[in-house]
Amino acid sequence: MVEMGKKSATFRFVVLNGRAYVEKYKESIQTRDVFTIWGLLQLLRRYPGKVPDLDLMFDCLDFPVIRKKDYDKFNSTVAPPPLFRYCSDDDSYDIVFPDWSFWGWAEINIKPWNLLLKDLHKGNKRTKWIDREPYAYWKGNPWVAEHRKDLVKCNVSDTQDWNARLYIQDWIRESQEGFKQSNVANQCTHRYKIYIEGSAWSVSGKYIIACDSATLIVTPYYYDFFMRGMMPLQHYWPIKMDDKCRSIKFAVQWGNMHEQKVQEIGKAASSFIQEDLKMDNVYNYMFHLLNGYSKLMKYKPTVPENAVEICSETMVCTSQGFVKQFMEESTVKGPAYVSPCVMQPPYDPQTLNSILDTKVNSIKQVEKWEKDYFEQINQV
User: Residue 74 — pLDDT band, cuts 50, 70, 90?
Assistant: First the structure.
């Protein structure tokens, strides 16, 4: 089953007696594979001797590929291969793992998460929410997906103001100027920030949500490892994918009329990022995921024929530039003083269904408010 995932995998990662081995299959986008492997090595440093033997395949591309329909129990006798990646969706079996940028995104000079969290915390304090621009802000590359191109149509114009201020990111110019305008800690300047997926899930989610600004999330199709733990009207405001402009206009209008409530939403989201998504918990998620995965293995892993042993020291020594810098800044200095957190038992079906119903009902409530608002305007 594991080797069935090879055709899609970027690399194979094996842990054997606390030592790590990697077999690479294809080139990765930028340094995604490098920092993902680096993150796995830091887990081994944080919990030495506690990460069990395992053998896994990792795909560094965005789109999930293990489609549930291909392994329907009524049509197939073949089990789906366990393939790790950064996101999945409700129609796929891909296993979700923290993305590479938690240890740094060298190509656009985004620091490792442990340092960036501190910068974001300081950035939040520079401008109080009430003093921020009373509009919805987004900055990014619209050319990666049709729904992003559609979002740009919601920008302010001579004839219409949808309460959105949208900016196209010029990555070529930014790279030439040292990414001076791309510091995410300096972008907590508007009361509202928009999250919209790119070609699949977008790594920008955690940076956007970390501002005290209320996050307007355009209906997502994909999920990463933490966003399903966020609740509409508690951590974010839902925006309809098929009617973005009107939905954004209403969200901002409602928020500016209910300042206390929308500030609470922004604060709850940034607290979620600062506390629930701090690196201690990222490593705990990784540990429990890999520990649970290893318990399912029915064979003892061996070192693949073309694999090489890797360790943190050799990766740092053979790197340079931002890659080397970010590795040094995200290095786990030594074993953790405490054991991994205790995994709580899964939700019982009744509790889980109650949570899911609350999500659905909260979104329906927003849609009703929005519908009533525009009906009232049209009557006037």
Answer: low
Residue type, 318: T
Whether the CB-CB separation of 277 and 226 falls below 8 Å is answered with yes
Distance CA 23, CA 14 (A): 9
The torsion defined by the Cα of 357, 202, 6 and 32, in degrees rounded to 10, comes to: -140
Say how many C-beta atoms besides its own lie within 10 A of residue 342's C-beta.
Answer: 7
Q: How far is CA 150 from CA 103, 138, 192, 322, 367, in A?
A: 32, 13, 19, 34, 20
Tens of pLDDT, residue by residue over 174-212, are: 666 666 665 788 889 999 999 999 999 999 999 999 999
Q: Cβ contacts of residue 298 below 8 Å, gap of 6+?
A: none
Backbone angles phi, psi at 37, to 5 degrees: -65, -40
Q: Is the distance from CB of 37 to CB of 327 less than 8 angstroms?
A: no
Query: Which pLDDT tens digit goes with each residue over 25-71?
Result: 999 999 999 999 999 999 999 999 999 999 999 999 999 999 999 98
Contact between residue 216 and residue 195 where contact means Cβ atoms under 8 Å apart: yes
Measured distance CA(44)–CA(21) in Å, rounded: 12
The class of domain 127-277 in CATH terms is alpha beta
The domain segmentation of the chain, as residue ranges, is 3-105+279-329, 127-277
DSSP 232: B
Indicate the angle between helix axes 244-257 and 349-379, nearest 10 degrees: 90
Q: Which of 234, 232, 230, 237 is nearest to 264 (CA)?
A: 234
Residue 41 contacts residue 27 (beta carbons within 8 Å)? no
- Residue 96 tokens read as 């979700």
Alpha carbon distance, N-terminus to C-terminus of the chain: 63
Q: What is the DSSP letter of 105?
A: B
- How many Cβ atoms sit within 10 Å of the Cβ of residue 205? 23
For residue 28, which of 96, 88, 106 has the smallest C-alpha distance?
Answer: 106
Cβ atoms 314, 67 nearer than 8 A: no
Report, as an integer, the average pLDDT of 203-230: 95
Q: Identify whether the C-beta of residue 54 lies closer than 8 Å to the C-beta of residue 15.
A: yes
